[in-house]
Input
Amino acid sequence: MPRRPLHPATLAAQALGWTDPATGAVVLPLYTATTFERDPDNQYRRGRGYARADNPGYDQPQALLTALEGGAASLLFASGMAAASAVFASLPVGAHVVAPRVMYWALRRWLNAATAKGALAAEFVDAAAPDELRAAVRPGQTSLVWIETPANPLWTITDIAAAAEIAHAAGALLAVDSTAATPVLTRPLALGADLVMHSATKYLNGHSDVIAGSLTASRTDEFWDRLVMARSGGGAILGSLESYLLLRGMRTLHLRVERACRSAQRIAEAMAAHPEVLSVLYPGLPSHPGHGVAARQMQGGFGGMLSIRVKGGEAAAIATAARVELWKRATSLGGVESLVEHRASVEGPGSPVPPDLLRLSVGIEDPDDLIADLDAALDGAADP
Ligand SMILES: Cc1ncc(COP(=O)(O)O)c(C=O)c1O
Output
């Protein structure tokens, strides 16, 4: 009798159960070779010629990512930005793309720069409002709809199934930046998306020591071939050590994400009751405008990311961040250590981020320690 299908947490913990056929090692070796031997008759029967295209160290993390996302194939990249920009670079020159106003700021800046020089025609909308998305797509002309959910740093939720229906009705692809959701909480391909992108720097690796990115596709078609070419031709490849470390990080993905979600929910509830907090942006709170959609499309939690708006404006927010002792004042997210960041200082003019906002990336520390540290920092705001 066939055994039941394995849970994704099992697949991740065992890195698909692969062992080294030569030695039986339960962890595969780190492949540092840049080049591979030809057969005497001038063929490459073992399938690899040069590591810019054919790094054997990618096989296992890509296969695991494909299994976790329920896709057809995955590609690792040198960074999340390299993965995202490979998608846009693979569209026709001047392609019309629709993207959210609230999204990872450096990609929004990159899309604006690409639009300014005519490489793309990016149009920004409130992707949380399906009617705005529907009004922005141009049937037969829009090549791609890009969404991010939950979206940095307001944690805006976009309905992936609705976005897929809108994109496909216009003949466009739907790509989802699922960095904050992780495949533990959301599987965008099952909801109709064509491509999933991760900044693997964040939860997938999870230890703030690797910069990496990934794409996973629902099918391997002509567009996928272009992405494969964009990586090997563009050369934005992940290093062998980084690929090895990324797989090691992914083996604990489920434990880390489950813990971060539980703690983030508790921290969000505690912050919502704090007198120095104006509001809490977290999709796990019923007060969040995207809570209903998030409850439908996220399973097992609402993520480890939240933002708080501090009473007293920008100066009070920056002063609060200055007073934390346990949280680290640093950018990035999704690591085992908790981070706090005054986001408007990073994004600069033109950002939709309010100046009183602090972004919190919840790690895996004891949640009561994290709450006590934030409470003390906020109490200092009331009593300068
Ligand atoms: C949601 C999201 N997408 C993409 C990126 C870019 O990823 P990377 O820094 O790995 O290039 C980031 C980085 O912060 C991010 O938070």
Notes: DSSP finds 15 helices and twelve strands in the chain.
